[in-house]
Amino acid sequence: MSEKELKNIDEEIKYLKHCLDTFENLQKEFLIKAELIIDDCKEGKTTKFLKHCDDIERLNGRFNPALSSVESFYKTTYKAKRNLDNLLSFACKFSGYIDSLNLYSKYFKESIQKAIILLNEEKDILKKQNSSTNLKEKDILKKEFLEKEKQIFEIYKNNSKFDLLNYDLKHFFNSIKYDAIKMWHFICNKKLLSISSILFLGSILCVPYFIIENKVPSISFDELYFALIVVFAFGFLTLFYIGVIFLYQNYLLFDISKYNKTAINHAYIYIYHLLFLTSLLLIVCNSLKDNLLILLFSLMAVLSLFFAIYSSFKSKTISNTILFLLLIFISDFLFFAIVKFRSDEIDVLALIMFVIIWFFARLLSMLKIFEYSLQGFFAILILFVILLFLHKDFVRLAGIANYDANYIVPTKFIPKHILDSNLSKCDKDNETCIIKFDENLTMLKNVKVVVKSDEKYFLKLNKQPFECEKFNDKIKCNDDIFNAHDLKCKNIKENGLECEYSYPIFEINQKNIVN
């Protein structure tokens, strides 16, 4: 394996040296022509000026790598050819461009020379690694090799206009390895996986829930200890899922789009995310009919399929294209499902910010170099939004709040409006119903425990939305009649309403609970 790697490194060094020689020769020729153009401008020789402009433009096709400074030269020469009366002003501007080119050329050549030095150092490391029999020494040499790979990748990333012939991809993967190992060592050295750190991180995931509810939970340390470990484990799995789906999906988008640098790439991202955001906003605002939802989903699916087929013809990477489509559907349509079933809990501004982050992350996937550190930053932002959104699930999973329970309570301690709430029918297993045993005792079945705080249970009726209709100045739901202020309703059809109970959270003292 090391022999093959050594051969690949030799080929890369040879290519870099060839590019340096070509660059230096073209630069010399370019500067000679540029000086002639300046002289022509100062002396007013329009015929020679046009000829030298044509010469310098022909260098464009041979100039590899292409530099932004060189592109500025060509744009300026085209303007000058259309305005020959202003040649003296053009000469001053052209001199400034030459200075800019010289500065950039110095930086570029130093960067490539440094890359060649690093590649030669990699060869020495591989030779030592191949001859060594000491496992510890081999491990040290491997880390040194990955560090060199990281440095080379940074050089290539900062010279992204340079034609890299896919050499950057090998360094890209090794650079990720280096950063991953470094991060793991940091986690181990700082003892971030110690029990105390796990408990702290688990508590951080639960804090948003209690801030929103404005209650401090009452829970014993023994219960809290195990609960926070469970929450941390769930949060870690969420982090892993986001990392795999988000980062790998964007890498695949980079991989299949790098072969067709056209406006179609950007058009796909813009149109797809416009449809994506429109669908989510309509869901949250309860304005999306099923037929329109199907239409928007179909447009997004067709658009993604068209882009994938087009890209696969250009790149010949059908497997990556299929995998990209699968990840798009898994991530985006799973998010659709979450928003659909929790539309009442979602803040519109947070949703818009989520889609904007998602949009820019995918747009930046189409750069010439895959900026995995930047993508990691976007992944952290996405994860932060999702973890905030899942705070209710964290506390419910840990069993410290937001869970369902059955309590038998003396009737006199239950608020009158709860007893009169027409919840005597236990139609569904996950909905609250009130069962009166006698005049003195009542069971609250499947009641939502918002939080236990200060030796009190703060409870909420757990009832799914149900269909109703207007009945004079009241609301009729099946055979039950309600006052308008007892329900929270929204229109779903011409005369129909979808309602849920608007009763506030009520409290029961722990000592008043019989069971």
From TrEMBL:
It comes from the Bacteria. This is Pentapeptide repeat-containing protein. Keywords: Membrane, Transmembrane, Transmembrane helix. The chain crosses the membrane at residues 192-212, 224-247, 267-285, 292-310, 322-341, 348-366, 372-390. It comes from Campylobacter majalis. The keyword RNA-binding does not apply. The keyword Nucleotidyltransferase does not apply.
